[in-house]
Design a protein that fits this description.
Elements: E1 2-10, E2 15-25, E3 34-37, E4 45-54, E5 69-70, E6 72-73
Parallel strand pairs: 2-5
Antiparallel strand pairs: 1-2, 1-4, 3-4, 3-6
Length: 78
């Protein structure tokens, strides 16, 4: 398992922008991968991986049980 940070897709700007958020994943992600990230507000959100292989200390203990898992890539239709 690895910890990654992502930025969400912002339709208003037609870009991945804003704060980055930590997720856990079993996928072999690298920076630049597009994924589907579960969120508290929506069931899923398009996101861009901006950091990978972060140390466990990235997630504070009080948030450990709230961190969600990324399980799928964002595969856009051609």
């Amino acid at each position: 398992m690895q910890i990654v940070k992502v930025k969400y897709f912002k339709p208003n700007f037609n870009a991945y922008a804003g704060m980055s958020y930590a997720y856990k994943t079993e996928l072999p992600l690298v920076a630049g991968d597009k994924v589907i990230a579960p969120t508290a507000k929506e069931t899923q959100q398009k996101a861009l991986v901006v950091e990978v292989n972060l140390p466990a200390e990235t997630i504070s203990p009080e948030w450990e049980d709230k961190v969600r898992f990324i399980t799928e890539y964002d595969i856009e239709e051609a």
